[in-house]
Amino acid sequence: xxIGVAAISGRPKIEQYSRGTGNELIVMAADRxxxxxxxxxxxxxxxxxxxxxxxxxxxxGGCGRCGWHLLYAGETDEARRIAREFRQDTEDWDSRIPxxxxxxxxxxxxxxxxxxxxxxxxxxxxxxxxxxxxxxxxGSLPLPISTxxxxxxxxxxxxxxxxFLICGFDQYDxxxxxxxxxxxxxxxxSGQGYATIGMGEDLARSRLLVRNxxxxxxxxxxxxxxxxxxxxxxxxxxxxxxxADVWVLHRFRELPAQTFGTDPASDASMAYKMTALAAAETxxxxxxxxxxYARAFADGLRNSANASPxxxxxxxxxxxxxxxxx
Length: 326
Description:
Blueprint lengths: L2 E7 L15 E7 L1 E6 L2 E6 L6 E8 L4 E10 L1 H14 L10 H23 L11 H6 L3 H17 L2 E8 L5 E6 L5 E3 L5 E5 L2 H10 L8 H18 L6 E14 L11 E14 L5 H17 L6 H10 L7
Antiparallel strand pairs: 1-2, 1-10, 2-11, 3-4, 5-6, 6-7, 7-8, 8-9, 11-12
Helix pairs in contact: 1-2, 5-6, 6-7, 7-8
C-alpha cells in the first residue's frame, strides 16, 4: 500500500460557499512505496513505475473540461478494474456536468460490481458455488467444508480491495474530495478540506491536524503541509522516503454557460486541468525550499490561466542536490 493525501487550498472564508471562485486548487500527493505482508512483519519495496493516480472522468460538458481523478492505495490491478467499470457506467456523461453525488454513487457501484466479481472468482468458484443465495448454500454444507469456505471469505474480506481519494470540481465549480473504501462506501471530505488513505494514513492525518491545515490556506502552505504529513508518516512506520508524485487540479480557463446547456451553475463554468508538479525525492530538498517551490508554481498560475508547470520543474532540478558519488 501507499500513503495518499489530497487537500484543498484557496477556498473563500465565507459561511455560504455556494459557488467556486476559480481560484481554488486541489493538491494530490502519493508516494510510490508498495507494502506487502510476510512472516515477521510488513515488508516494503519501491516500484518507481507505479503511479498512484488514475484519470477517472477526463471530459465533461463536451468541451474538454477536465474533471475527476483518483488516488488509490491497494492492488493496482483492482484499482484499474474499478476505474474501467466506472467509465463504462458513465459513458453517457460526455454531454453534461455530473453532480458530485452522482460521482460518489457511480464510484460506489463500480467498487461493489468489481468486488462481487472478484468474490465469485476467488472464493465461491473454488467450491462451485453460485452467487445466488450463496450464504444459504454455505450454511448447508458439511462442517469441514463450510469452515474452509468461511475462512476463505474472511481472508477475502481482509485482503481484497483498495481505498480511494476521488478529487474534482463539482457542478458549481467547488473543489471536492471524496473518500471511498473497499466495500463501496463513499464519503465526502470536502468540509474538512483534506483526506488521507493507505498504510500510515492515521499518522499523516494527525500531522495535518497538528499543523491545523485548512481549506482556506494558501497553496504554498497546503503544499508544504501535505508533504510534511507524507514524510512524517513514512518516518513513523520506518519506511525510507522514496519517490513522491504531486499533482494539482486547477482552473484552466473559463467557458461560456451556453457551452454546457443546462449547466446548473449559471454565468460561466470553468475548465480544469491536472498538472503534474514533479516526481522527486521527498528528502532531497529541505523543507524551507519546498515552500519556495510551491510559491514559484503558484506565481506561474497567477500570471497565466494556461500556465505551464515548466517553471517549478526547473526550480526543482536547480535546487535538488547532486547525486552522491557513493
